[in-house]
Amino acid sequence: MEYTELIRIRESVRNYDPDRSVPSEVMSKILDAGRLALSACNYQPWKFLVISSSEMLKKVRNCYKREWLNNAPHILVIIGFKDQAWTRGYDGYNSLETDIAIAMTHIILAATNEGVGTCWIAAYDPAQLREALKLDENQVIYSITPLGYPKAGYKKSLIKNRKPLEEVVKFL
Fold it and tell me: In this structure, what are the phi and psi dihedrals at residue 92, rounded to the nearest 5 degrees?
């Protein structure tokens, strides 16, 4: 798909077909897009956790209690490692959140290109999710997304409510 069209049609999907898993070859394409994402100093301080087993899905879904999430056949969690991310010397800024956001964006756009729905979620219970995944203090989660095909009859929104370009751009 042409890139401009891809970013125009990408949207948050909240209606998944629970009986249609993402095939491994499609999942690999999607995850590879995240692997290829840029990161500060090319440190790639991340790991992609694909939750697909019913036992783990139940634990992870419990961290974000929305009925529609129960139908997603997969949930992707990107964890980042603070000690593996680039840190700016003069003020201590750590690039981890930016690096993970870039990888998640690559993954979400690749999923859209493959016809797979996503929904960037940040409103989960971080302590509960950390416990469910048995993460240590160095491992950070900034967002999760379901991965799955939209349910039959799902209608994409044709209207994106975005500010006009001249409102968000200033040439200096």
Answer: 80, 5
Q: What confidence tens digit (pLDDT) does each residue in 13-22 have?
A: 999 999 999 9
Give SS3 for 34. helix
* DSSP codes, 104-150: HHHHHHHHHHTT-BB--B--S-HHHHHHHHT--TTEEEEEEEEEBPB
- Return all residues near 89 (Cβ < 8 A) that are at least 6 apart: none
Domains in the chain (CATH in brackets) are 13-151 (3.40.109.10)
Q: What is the pLDDT of residues 101-118, one digit of tens each?
A: 999 999 999 999 999 999
Q: Which amino acid is at 71?
A: N
**Cα separation of 66 and 24, whole Å?**
26
Would you state the pLDDT for residue 153? 84
